[in-house]
Amino acid sequence: MAIYNVTDATFKNEMQSEGLTLVNFWAPWCGPCRMFAPIIEAYDADGNNDVKILKVNVDENVETASLFQIMGIPATFLFKDGKLVDKKTGVMPKEDLKQFIAKHK
Fold first, then answer.
1. Which stretch is the leader sequence (predicted)?
2. Which pLDDT band holds residue 1 (cuts at 50, 70, 90)?
3. Which one, out of 19, 24, 30, 97, has a CA that is 20 to 30 A from the CA of 80?
4. 88: closest CA among 15, 25, 18?
């Protein structure tokens, strides 16, 4: 599956899909976010097409960030069939990201 950059206007529509959706809240000035981005990209590139990946820039999409009360970034939220099932703040190694997702399949 691909990685989609979403906005306040498109977030709700993107969340209506069935299955797993990983949402990465980030900002361009955030060092840990820049470290985590290639890990998410590598996970996707490995052919893990069982999860939809959305990226939300918190500076440009304040409404969505406020809705989920994002206080620290990077923040990773995992939804199953549109419902929040897990969340974590901070950078995760690729193996931890795989486990974070796998426990909700």
1. none
2. low
3. 30
4. 25
- Other C-beta atoms closer than 10 Å to the C-beta of 102 total 12
Q: Which residues are CB-contacts of 92 (< 8 A; sequence separation ≥ 6)?
A: 36, 39, 76, 100
43 a catalytic residue: no
The arithmetic mean of pLDDT across residues 24-50, rounded, is 94
Predicted TM-score of the model (pTM): 0.94
For residue 33, the surrounding DSSP H or E stretch is helix 31-45
Catalytic pick among 33, 58, 73, 97:
33
**In the chain, where are the structural domains located?**
3-103
Catalytic residue among 6, 20, 22, 30: 30
